[in-house]
Every structure is written in C-alpha cells, then in structure tokens.
Design goal:
This protein has 184 residues and is an alpha+beta fold. The chain has a domain of 64 residues. It has 3 helices and 8 strands; from the N terminus they run αααββββββββ. The strands form 2 sheets. The protein has a 4-stranded antiparallel sheet with strand order 1-2-3-4, with no helix packed on it. A 4-stranded antiparallel sheet has the order 5-6-7-8, with no helix packed on it.
Amino acid sequence: MAGISPIASSTAPNWLKEAQESIAATENPGGLMGMLQDSRATASIKNFLIKSQSTANAMQLINSSTAQSMATLTLQRSDAAQQKLQQEKVAMLMKMNPQHSNFNPAKELDSFIYFQDGSSIDTVSNILTMSNGTQIDTVTGLQVIDTSQMISMANGAYLDTKNSILHMADGTQIDTVTGLKVTA
C-alpha cells in the first residue's frame, strides 16, 4: 500500500499502472482491518520483516510527502511575500507620482496676436510689428531689417529702400525723401 490512492486517476499519463496498483492495494488493507488480517498470518521472522519493510516504506512516503508539502508551502509563502512587496512598491510609486487623469495640455498661442493700437505679434516667427511698420525681434529686442530691401555701404552705413531711410554708421537716421534727420 505504499501511498497509492485506491482510486486511479484517469487523467494521469500512467493510469493503467495506477489502476493495477490500486487493485493490489485493496487486497492488503491497512488500519484495523489490516491488523485483523495480519493476525491470521503465521508468525514468522520472514512475515515480520516483510510487514516491517512495508511499514518503513509507508513511513518514508509520509515523511517524503510532508517534506514536499513543506517545501511547496514555503515557496508559496515566499511568492506571496514577494508579490505583496511588489504591490507595496507600486502603491508607493503611485502615491509619490500620481497620474493625472484629467490632464489638459496647455493651449498654444494664436499664430498672430493683435493689439488695440494696431500693432501685432507673429508668435510663429517672434516678430512684433508696430503700428508704424517697424518690426522688432521679440527674442533679441533688435529691430528686424529686411536685407532684400537694404543697400550696404562701405563705411558701415546702409540704405533701407523700403522705408527710404539712410542709416549712418554712427546710428544717425536720415529720411532720403525729405533729407531731414529722423528722430525716434
């Protein structure tokens, strides 16, 4: 009866062997019935050794089964502890870095912003156009000069043909139509 189930498992790969062992195990019952059957047997050393060996095998199977169960339980508890630790770490990360479910991305600026005085800002190219037509780079703060409308002179002066203004090297500006000095 070496730990064989009296009912064979039909899903086991060796079910035929299990069935044969179950039949053999029912012929040698254990417990009180087995003890009563043993009382009929002749008392001999051979019989005693066979029964002792059978009992030792059964005890060894119980011991092996217990050790296997303890190992399985230890692994299950270890896995459960590891899983709990992981869940606690994830919970802590979620607490420290909450996910915003109602996040709305920031609105972008309009490509042109118009002001009441007639000036405007081109937010794509970062140019402020004043109501008098002067253009200023909003990043650097310098006046934007269209180089295709400009004639450079040897002394560092240049002529703005679009606005008809001569820019001298010392910063003086002269209106080429009137010949008068332009004051800012």
